[in-house]
Each structure stands twice: as structure tokens, then as C-alpha cells.
Amino acid sequence: MRTTRLLRPDPDGIVAAAALLRSGGLVAFPTETVYGLGGDASNPDAVAAIYAAKGRPAHNPLIAHVVDAHAAARIARFDPRAAAVADTFWPGALTLVLPVRDARLLAPAMVPKGAGTVAVRVPAHPVARALLAAFGGPVAAPSANISGRVSPTTALHVRDELGGRIDAILDAGPCDVGVESTILSLTGPRAVLLRPGGVSQSALSEVLGIPIVQTQETDVLTAPGQLASHYAPSSPVRLDARSRGANELWLGFGAACEGADMSLSASGDLGEAASNLFAALRLLDQRANGRRIAVAPIPERGIGIAINDRLRRAAAPRSGD
Ligand code: TXA
Ligand code: MG
Questions:
Q1: Taking the domains of the chain in order of start, what are their residue ranges?
Q2: For labeling, which of 137, 179, 188, 311 is most exposed (least CB within 10 Å)?
Q3: In angstroms, what is the span from residue 63 Cα to ligand 1's centroid?
Q4: 218 CB contacts (<8 Å, ≥6 apart)?
Q5: What is the mean pLDDT of the segment spanning 280-304?
Q6: pLDDT in tens, 294-305
């Protein structure tokens, strides 16, 4: 059992967090998407400790977070397509899967066996940037939740799940975007969307000038097309719920959901809904007491695509995690 310190996101807190990372410790920190669980990406013990703290399957690789595109170019190879999207969307809610340039800068687990690729992201959150600058190297950071569960968008979410398993949490309040980064793979001739997220597919294909092929985040890891349970609360979830059924709590969206137990956005704003999504699922889960969570239909456009992706996984059959 570790003592988990709550650190303020001021210069002292950043210095303390960077020192913990240098000594192989685990520090959760805010990004504009969700809180990440950070460890030194070049230190195999720190990376192993991330997997242990989350109970994450060893075959699911981590994202390397770096301070800017120059730092990213030390670990990954950028072709002109990758350079163009990085230039437009970094810092921001975009992760690029690229061929690895120098695997010696990373713990072996950061580079999936046989793939020769690495996932890199330059986050925009000022506290994440300050931490990355103070640390000075790539930081491995999955979402700071127990594997398979809902991602955290506040420091308290992190403490509830990982308190006692990690060294510190930098608390900078709730995350803006609320769903994880978009993951785009540019390792071959095609541009492949591995996960919809904070940056929309249409914005990406506009910059790339080519259509983007869609695949499931899980394809890399399991059978194609399988919708693995992930991002899941403990309670069962029903989608496209236009009203509350028996034994259900109803999570609304927009004006048509009067009487809902909670709303993702009463005005029907998709950005607000994304930012509220994971906190709402956690709260309803705590109140559910055996009831199901029924979620109103969410329009399949813009960041609504990422919201629906997470909701479908939250509702997918559980494999017994
Ligand atoms: O917004 C985010 O991306 C957050 C914040 C903390 O940055 N992080 C996050 O990490 O969501 P995580 O570990 O929960 O999701 C990372 C995803 C996983 O689905 C993993 O399979 C995929 O990235 N991934 C990582 N490396 C990969 C690689 N080399 N090839 C394909 N997929 C990869
Ligand atoms: Mg995650």
C-alpha cells in the first residue's frame, strides 16, 4: 500500500510530481481529455507498475506523452501526413500511432512486440505541459482508472479507484473535453482511426486530404469487430432510452428528457455532454442500487461520435472483469 499525496498544480506541486516520476513513482495528472496515470516511459519498472496499479492486461500498450512535436520526433517517425496533423492538432486531444524511431528511449512495453510502433500525444492542459517540461522525457500515461472501468475526469475519481496504489495525484479540477483522445494510426499507407475522441474524424480527414479508415480500438488486441466491454460502470447500461423503464435511472440529453434523473446537457450541447459523461456515469452508478442506467439517444455527429463509442462499450456484454 502506497500513500497517495494530493498535490496542488502550482510550481511546488509540479516539482514534487516530476521528482516522483524521476524516482520511478506513479503520478496521476490532468489532461484536457481525462486524468492520466503517469510513469517514466523509459523506466521498465515504472511502466510495469502502471500495469499493476490499473490491473491492465499486458498486451494493451500505453501512450507516450511528450511536451512538444520535437520531443515526439525523437521517439517516433513522422512522415508528411503525420507532420501535418501534428502541426494542426497538437497540443490537443489527438494521439498518433507511428513507427518508432528510437526504441532505446522507451521501456520495451511501450513498443508492442512485432509492431514497431508507438502511440504519442502532446496534451494541451497547462498542468500536463508543465509536468512534461519539468520531467523532461516521455511520460507513459493510460487513463487513471482500474482497467475496463470509466475514465476519471476529476482528481477525486482517481483517488476513489487508485488511492493507495499510486504516489500522487495533481489536482487541477475537472477535465474540459471529458472523453479520451482520438487515436489515429499512420503506420502504413492508410490512415486508420483506432478510437474516436476529442478531435473529430472529419477535421482529421480535411487536413490529411484522404479518407480515414475506421476500425475498433480493440482490433489491435482482439478479434476484429468484437465490441469489448470497456469504459463501463458496474450497473448495466441501456442505450437510446427515450423514457425511463422500470427499475432504471435515466440519463437525459436535450430538452426532450424532462424528468430524467440527471442530464448530460439540458440544452443539447454535445461538448457539454462529453465533459459530463464519465462523472455522470459514476454518480448514477453510485445511486443505482441494482437499477439499470438508461441513456438518452446522443446525436452521432462531432464529439457525439466519441460519446456513443464510449456508451456502446459501457453497454457491451461484460467478459467478467
Ligand atoms: O486522452 C487520452 O488518450 C488519455 C489521456 C490520459 O492522455 N489516455 C488514454 O490512454 O486514454 P489509454 O491507455 O486508456 O488508451 C490508450 C489506447 C489503448 O486503446 C491502446 O490499445 C492504444 O491506445 N495504443 C497504444 N499504443 C498503441 C500502438 N502502438 N498501436 C495501437 N494502439 C495503441
Ligand atoms: Mg483507458
A1: 5-214, 237-315
A2: 188
A3: 5
A4: 226, 227, 228, 230
A5: 97
A6: 999 999 999 999
